[in-house]
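tool_log.txt
---
The assistant was asked to compare two proteins side by side. It first ran the structure predictor on the initial sequence, then on the second. Raw inputs and outputs are pasted verbatim so the downstream comparison step can read them without reformatting.
(1)
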Amino acid sequence: MTEPHHPPDDPREWLNRARSNLRLAAQHEPGIYREELCFNAHQAAEKAIKGVFISLRADFPYTHDLRELLDLLGRRLDVPEHVRQAQELTPFASRLRYPGHGKAATEEQYRQALAIADAVIGWAAQVIAKEGQ
């Protein structure tokens, strides 16, 4: 079942998109590179974090650097350490998703990327609910 679409300024839409990316990341099937799956895990975390910015009615830069986003968000609210681990996913949004720019993602990196993205989405959903969205 497809989630209903919300306006782009609604943090629920960003969470829906984050969850969609996480579902794509979980599609560990033959022929799909783990780097692509980790990229979707990164996208899930990024969209969830940006959903928090929207719920706070705060601007955010259009960047894929999760450290930058989390540092900026940390000026507005407490960001738990397990959420800050998302910064480890940034290389999957830049150099590692292209051939020849790093080593192939390991199964352990893939599993960790899924766990991190899932934790970020869970945290973001709580923050957004608390903000009344």
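(2)
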Amino acid sequence: MAIGMFKKMILLAAILTLASPAFAQNVTPADSGLHLILSPHYLNLTTEPGKSVSGTLKVQNLGNKTEDLQISLMKFTANDTSGVPKVMDREPGDDFFDWVTFSEEKFSVLTNQWKDITVTIKPPSTAAFGYYYVFAFTRVNENVTGGGKAIVQGAPSILGLLNVQVPGAKKEARLVKIETDHKIYEYLPVTLKATIENTGDIHLAPSGNAFITRGGDNVATLDVNLTKGNILPKSMREFDVAWVDGFPQYVDKIQDGKKIVDKNGKNVQDLRWEFSQASKFRIGKYTAHLLMVYDNGSKDIPLEGYVSFWIIPWKIILAGIVVIVLIVLGIWQIIKPMFSRRLKS
């Protein structure tokens, strides 16, 4: 049960904490009854070797009683290209754990009240580049166990990214590929997938746009990584963006506020006909021009690529052909007797 809940919490943290820090994180673990809001989603700190840097972790108790909490420190690394972090316990050689202190490691939060905890990190003069922390919040009477995998039962968390700036640090990335999930579509949506590799020493957050064109005309502009999701050093991350502005289009089927999935775990979709959007009928060959940038410390560096795809609404085309054939046959049935009479005369 603890492992399952932990995986759910890490998935939620990945979606929220690597996104924009502008919103709070609302976490309600079902098995613990712990109802907290955490802010920010992630703590992004920058300093120099030997210099302390501090940030604030905010906790709100939405429960109906005072909570006695503690902060547990772990680390995370890139897990795969999805952006979901791999959370780990301290390992031999992880001296960067010792750099961290809290204004309070154990504290109480009254119901409906906020509590601010100051985290201070003091890297030594030998520190360089990026270090990645997980600040997990649990009740004081709940144990934190390790043993190869970090298991924190029902622990809402904030991710911490520390950049220790040193001369010669490399902030560098490359576009590995841009592709679509299919080459030919019947209707929208079209999902673009941009895979970017961080080949440098420091985490970075590229962002930009995908411009959808047809015959040289721009028909749509899509935001890519609008929430500034980070890519850790020596890892790749895939950024997905969907083009949905068309007529007709497939939409996920929802029942009781939840998406319906089939036996294979895929979302069940319905074809939606919004005739007010009929002017956005999509057909033909389209090209997506991806243009993203990242800050290398002195200027913005572009990442650029192209991918083409087709939208062929074959059912509509087939229905149109059938209608035309029926019209032609109908006209022929009308004029056929006229030709027959003329031939006889």
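---
observation on (2): The chain is about 15% helix and 45% strand. The first strand starts at residue 25 and ends at 27.
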